[in-house]
Amino acid sequence: MQAIDEEVPPEEKAENFKKQGNNKLRLAQSDKADTAARRTLLREAVQAYTDGLAVKVSNAQMNAVLLSNRAHVQLLLGNFRKALEDALAARQLEPGNVKALFRAARAASKLAQWGQCLALCEEGRAADPASKEFEGMAKEASAKLEEQRQKEAAAAAAAEAEAAPARALAEALTARGYKLTRPQVSLGQRTRPELRPDGSLVWPVLLLYPESGGQDVVEAFGEEDTFEEHLDMMFGPEAPPLEWDADRAYARDRVELYYLAHAGRPLGRDQLVEAMQGRWPKGADSADMGPQRYGSRAARLRRINPRHTLRKVLASEDHVVPGLPLFFVVARDTAYRQRFLESGQ
After folding, report:
1. Of 55, 71, 94, 291, whose CA is between 20 and 30 Å from 250?
2. What is the pLDDT of residues 283-310, one digit of tens each?
3. Where does this protein have coiled-coil stretches (predicted)?
4. Among residues 230, 16, 295, which one has the least CA distance to residue 5?
5. How far is 238 from 219, CA to CA, in rounded Å?
């Protein structure tokens, strides 16, 4: 039997497999086949067409028919991705194959690939102008594409409306010369400054006491407020002492404030808008975004003149805000202050 099989020409083998597949398909579509039998016959048809392709005849038309027929069966089985692949392969072998184009368009529609579906319909109508098979799918694809376009336009408009306040805030920050790096500080729900109707900015500000690990929050630090205004309230004669400051070193006339200069690489415009929307900016995870240890832009501590406004300090050339303004509080004439400055320079 093997010898006889070897004597059969490849084209004849492929033709036989095609006929087997066609017979299986015909039986599957007959009224006599129940659901289970139908699926079995369809799978057997797929296998027959696959065996025909495995012969690898040089006849492109034969291979195109086998692929197109297998695509048809895959459609019936609900294997739309495989159907599309087979139909496109058939079209590649035999451009203008209307059946292959129709089956490819049908598979594309089932996959909701409406742009490809419409293109295939147009190609099919060009190949056979008299054909009416493509009209329904082309109309559906056009309607779906328009619906998709409208949804995308609405989504873009909604995204722009959502981003508008953040964009205005980012523009206000940039106009003042403020630079922000990737967010390193957040205060609960407060992740950004507030842009007031009069155009002024109010920041939540974090004060850290590195000596104790404690912190204070100034909820509304106006950019035109001076630091001494807030320090007078926090450390003045009537203010309660810090719980951990047993030596009362943090008296008003001894408190000093510092910020970390060059705390990170400034965010770009689009990254800043994302940050002002409360999102993590794209690309902010790169290693070079953080503070540098060496060079002219190495991170180092800078003392704040308490008579300066927050605006003046934030606009300093070397000041890069780590999400929200962060300042270190230490007491003058203490052993800890010296260690702190030595560690931060």
Report:
1. 291
2. 877 767 777 777 777 889 999 999 999 9
3. 131-164
4. 16
5. 20
Of the chain, the percentage scoring pLDDT greater than 70 comes to: 97
CATH value of 2-146 in 3.40.50.2000, 1.25.40.10, 3.40.50.720, 3.40.225.10: 1.25.40.10
Whether residue 209 has pLDDT greater than 90 = yes
pLDDT at 142 over 80: yes
Strands 326-331 and 201-209, by their bridges, are parallel
Confidence at 278, pLDDT banded by 50, 70, 90: confident
For residues 315 and 180, the answer to whether their CB atoms sit within 8 Å is: no
> Average pLDDT in the 47-55 region?
97
Query: What is the chain's mean pLDDT, rounded?
Result: 92
Q: Which residue has the tokens 């805030």?
A: 169
**Residue 214 and residue 328: Cα distance in Å, rounded?**
10
Domain residues of the chain, as ranges?
2-146, 194-344
CA dist 37 and 24 (Å) reads: 11
The residue type found at 40 is: T
| Residue whose pair of structure tokens reads 């996959």 in the numeric block | 111
DSSP classification of residue 291: -
Helix/strand/coil for 221 = strand
| 243-262: average pLDDT | 94
Burial (CB count <10 Å: 0-12, 13-18, 19+), residue 306? middle
CA 264 to chain CA centroid, Å, is 23
Euclidean distance between CA atoms 21 and 38, whole angstroms = 13
107 touches 71 (CB < 8 A):
yes
